[in-house]
Amino acid sequence: MKKLIFFFVLLSLFSCGDYIDKPKNLIDEDTMAEILADLSVNDQATYMYQNRNLEAGTRFVLKTHHVKSADFIDSFKYYVVKDKMNGIADDAQKKLLKKDPKADQYVKDKSKKSGNVPSFAK
Fold it and tell me: What is the value of pTM for the model shown?
């Protein structure tokens, strides 16, 4: 009986690991932030030009960064499970605001009106 309990205790210790394994072709956090920034620009372009294809723009962004879609999806899932996606999204927003300084003032004005101050603006 003691051996059986010991076996279950060991089994439970070794089964408590990560929810997700590290992907084989994990995209680093900085590249992931760049991709997310470019994808948000692509999303806004398709919002303004509604008869354009979002999928083609997404493929172009991934091809520009030399990333396969499966690797992006696996990396995205990994960062979400590891609670790193908020930091990556904040980095992506900072990169977007560096590319367009006028957008920085727009975001600050909108956040003052709504009372929500983004973490990067503090």
Answer: 0.70
